[in-house]
Amino acid sequence: MEKDVIIKFDRVSYSYEEGGDYAVNDVNLDIYKGEFTAVLGHNGSGKSTLAKLTNALLLPVAGSVFVRGMDTAREEFETQIRQSVGMVFQNPDNQIVSTIVEDDVAFGPENLGVPPEEIRRRVDDALKTVGMYEYKGHEPHRLSGGQKQRVAIAGVIAMRTECIVFDEPTAMLDPKGRQEVFRAIKSLNKDFNITVILITHFMDEAVFADRVIVMDDGYVRLDGSPREVFKRVKSLRDMGLDVPKPLQLALLLKKEGIDLGDEILTNEDFIKEFLNYSGRNNVNT
Amino acid sequence: MIKDITIGQFFPGKSFIHKLDARIKIVLTGIILVMIFVCGNFYSLGLMSAFILFSFLLTRLSLRLILKSFKPLVLILVITSLLQLYYVDKGEILFSWRKLSITSGGVYMMIFITVRILSLILVSSLLTYTTSPTSLTYAIESLLSPLKVFKVEVHTFAMMMTIALRFIPTLIEEIDRIMNAQKARGADFETGSLVSRIKALFPIFIPLFVSSFKRAFELADAMSCRCYTGGKGRTRMKQQKTGVRDLCAAAAVIVLSAAVIWLNAFFGRVV
Fold first, then answer.
1. Is A137 in Cβ contact with B12 (below 8 Å)?
2. Which of A76, A194, B125, B148 would give a disulfide with A188, using CB separation of 3.0 to 4.6 Å?
3. Could A57 and B224 be called an inter-chain contact, meaning their C-beta atoms sit closer than 8 Å?
4. What's the complex ipTM?
5. Is B253 a domain residue?
6. What is d(CA A246, CA A186) in angstroms, rounded to the nearest whole number?
7. What percentage of chain A carries pLDDT values higher than 90?
8. Which residues in chain B touch residue A109, judged by CB atoms under 8 angstroms apart?
9. Within a domain: residue B36?
10. Up-side HSE of residue A260: CA atoms within 13 Å toward CB?
């Protein structure tokens, strides 16, 4: 099957100050339709800068970014680009514009000049998709962090975006909020075929992606399926990153002589391999 | 708690008053405010306050809210009525003590002024209680739109109002957090001379300014991401339509104003 490219990075570099260090350095990337990509990297690795380059919030100093073939540097494409690539930020408080949930979700479609009845339909659909429909008349400041973040997501999907870039959407949330938001993100990708780029530093979120990109010092260092990327334990640790918890545990067990293999990413993988192992070696568990 | 502050004091509902077009509501409130000052005797003022009370009953809001709206102004009310009592020297003397004398005219004046102020407060809180901040800003934008001829950025102004209203609770929470953080480090906001208390506020406002700017930049990014490019080519999800209901309300207010003027003329002005 021919893969459908949504975002293309062509030798892109970016620096915040003229002549300063590059925050993003010579990046080549193709993001495909329907793909769930996780971008990992420690603070200052350039992952947020990469996010802002995808929809013309920042323009490359060298190279070009194309969204559906449209160069982000050309101003006449700006609205179209932002309509197809939406973005959700870390702090839910700083991206909600209106004093009522449904009015906030309507903000994007209103900007696009969508007719009122159509906006109403989209707003209701978007709120149902993220499970916030019954809160449509609420004031955002009375919602929990996870709920606010889901409202922000609804605000993006009401614009009928093809691709959503999430810039550490769960970093400021409590465990319950994190779970709610992450579940919503997964469902957008699976059930609605929305392309997801998830910037995160939670390894246990990255393992659910189709593809993991690891950034360090502005360069893309690793790029592949979670299994391929998390095999590179040593290079990940050199870049100041960890591996998912189940894999960490498996590696510790390996040191003790219990080899479960290195394909363990989730708790389920761990249990399966562990049961296999104990079956093979008649270990009493 | 500090978090429980209601912005614009809006109480959602489905009553006749709630459903009125916000633009009409603003204009009618304005007319009523003027008419309250036009009222020159107890008959017209009585009719006026009866009308306002009736409108309040129509909203089906709890009557306790009336008291709540009066609360912040009790002091002003007491002072003005006492002043009336003291300064007005008309009618027979009811009570006198040394140089102080209370006249019947003074008592009338006191009651009159009190009812007038209470009516003013009640009618303006009626507007904010029954109109959501969003419809208020939409209405103001719509009412001010003729100013576009003079190149006034009406949309930008309304957007600023919306954002300001949206961020009031967020910033109050932030102040609360910063104050607690400073208190935890031994800051003292409650004691000391006025100067030292004002000085103690600097460590609150400087972090507040810094974080507000940070918020503003992030909000600007978020708004650009959602294709905001100003007022041009925007549509509205919630359309305000002027209907039969609004015409009825307008008619009622016109009849009321006519009645007030007639009562003033018929019974003469007391004030």
1. yes
2. A194
3. yes
4. 0.87
5. yes
6. 20
7. 67
8. 235, 237
9. yes
10. 25
